[in-house]
Design goal:
Length: 426
Amino acid sequence: MAGESRPGATTSDDRPQRRPRVVLGVSGGIAAYKACELLRRLTESGHDVTVVPTAAALEFVGAPTWAALSGKPVASDVWHDVHQVPHVRIGQAADLVLVAPATADVLAKAAHGLADDLLSNTLLTARCPVVFAPAMHTEMWEHPATQENVATLRRRGALVIEPAEGRLTGADTGKGRFPEPAEIFEVGRDVLARARSANLLDLAGRHVLVSAGGTREYLDPVRFLGNRSSGRQGYALARAAAARGAEVTLAAANVSLPDPAGVKVVHVETTAELRDAVLAGTSTADAVVMAAAPADYRPSTVSETKIKKADDGSAGSLALEQNPDILAQISHDRVRLGAVIVGFAAETGDETASVLDLARAKLLRKGCDLLVVNDVSGGKVFGSTDNEAVVLDADGTATPVPHGSKAALAHVVWDQVVARLDRLPG
Ligand code: CTP
């Protein structure tokens, strides 16, 4: 499916740009109402969207809503405008088919090639990338029938996003929640941007672990030592890996960004908690990317009660001890042979050494395979949506990444991780 030639898609760079054609398939779950937000984001960002709801989806959100938001007529059966052969044309012309929400029923139909309505016909005729964002109750998601259907679809090249954990339709919570529409939109956009890659889902079957954010080291219940890391680069890495088909665990230290779609997020606060979360994943992870900024030091003691200001005006003092270096530890231990370990280095050069000299020394010291080097002189990078870096490889090569989005840098990192994993024998 992914990576095959796509009728209707642009095939030459010098052809005039046209709006990317997205089919938004909506199946009959309560999360259909959230797909309105997804549709809005798609149309507002310049996509030409055809909504194909199932009959059950129309029980939740009516055709006028889809028609008004997409600016196009909407049908769920194959008997409208038959002279235009919609059951074939819509799928053939698409650059991306995004089924969100995808119910257990639609996943089963797609896996078995049934074609009894417009959406299932579209899924059979589409030759573009297909993304499913499942949403259902935990029992339905975990049922072997659903799991086998998901495995079949993934084997055939579809991207099936792992549902989120959280509140479900009723009072219950669990896995099966529809991820945030804005995050599903990001996955769709990412897949479209890479639709012509030779291997769109080159991280499929891989487990990757990413850390993000800045740790906090508490002095007392209300005060902590922290740093300015926003977590954006780590989140961009997690998002990009999920869009490339990986099973992604994200250890997030004090990040206030929404959970990326399809990513298992483990929230931590301190460096000790971050280390536990990272070590828990190293036996299964094919790649570990340490984009977090763990505090190097923590207070030697943590007061259980709020520390009071001294009456005599004295400043007091703070005794610190060093935190464990997680990156150095996992690089040294190498729990999983062949796993690619990536570090980040925020450096400022000085009169004695350049940023790259310092970074090369750090790569050796830490023992990781790749080091992504940011020049942060003057507060650059922190909190910004853009980044500029050099990726140093332990084999001595250096890949400059020009100024661009954190998502773009994330993809360069994964390109290099994939290249290293592919070089492994067997
Ligand atoms: N890192 C880590 N554990 C720590 C500190 C840092 O795993 N306790 C990781 C970061 O996630 C990052 C890399 O190490 O991937 C570089 O972090 P940096 O703080 O720049 O390295 P330091 O060893 O602290 O170097 P410096 O001597 O420049 O402070």
